[in-house]
Amino acid sequence: MSNGKLEELRGQLDSVNQQLLELLSERGRIAQQIGQEKEKQGVPKYDPVREKEMLDELVAQNKGPFDNETIRHLFKQMFQASLKLQQSDHVKHLLV
Amino acid sequence: MSNGKLEELRGQLDSVNQQLLELLSERGRIAQQIGQEKEKQGVPKYDPVREKEMLDELVAQNKGPFDNETIRHLFKQMFQASLKLQQSDHVKHLLV
């Protein structure tokens, strides 16, 4: 009975994990397009002002249960991964 | 003209950020319920076997653009944050 409840919650978690993966991947694809656009315009990829704005906006929208510090930490990791993606695209572009 | 393109992509990114925040928060709420259920059952919160299964499943579903190592890293951060949430709920519970 109790194990049924745990199984149900785990099923929900798996579904959310999958949706998170899809959204993260979509975020990665948009970041790649932004990287290409910045490349064309000769603008630096890393924009700390824009990053701060995004983090402030996310914290303003945060209703929990994660505290603001955790939200900042998790999104900073995603931003770093996106930047790495843009930079590796740049290297690939140079190698072509 | 080009700035319009960048603005459009940034708008898309903001929208995805917001959806990610909502999903992350939903994940946090489910993790809290799992923590309460485990508490009742006297089962440990941290389950490395289940965590490995979730990571393997995510990597199997990953179609890019992030590489598998990055997906593992990002999700591990989310898992750790969820575990911290369960543990702080436990402390609150003890203090009541």
Summarize this entry quickly:
The first copy, chain A, is mostly helical.
**Mean pLDDT across every amino acid position of chain A:** 93
Q: In one word, what is the shape of chain A?
A: flat
**Tally of distinct domains of chain A:** 1
Task: Give the largest chain-chain interface (CB within 8 Å).
Answer: A-B, 51 and 51 residues
* SSE order of chain A, one letter for each helix or strand: HHH
Q: For this structure, what is the CATH class of chain A?
A: Mainly Alpha
**In percent terms, what proportion of residues of chain A is strand?**
under 5%
**Head-to-tail CA distance between termini of chain A:** 59 Å
Low-confidence stretches of chain A: none
Strand-pairing-aware structural class of chain A: mainly alpha
Largest sheet descriptor of chain A: none
By CATH, the superfamily of chain A comes out as Chorismate mutase
Count of alpha and pi helical runs of chain A: 3
Q: In total, how many beta strands of chain A? A: 0
Helical fraction of chain A: over 70%
Proper CATH architecture of chain A: Up-down Bundle
Protein name (chains A, B): 3-deoxy-D-arabinoheptulosonate-7-phosphate synthase /chorismate mutase
Domain Chorismate mutase (chains A, B): 1-90
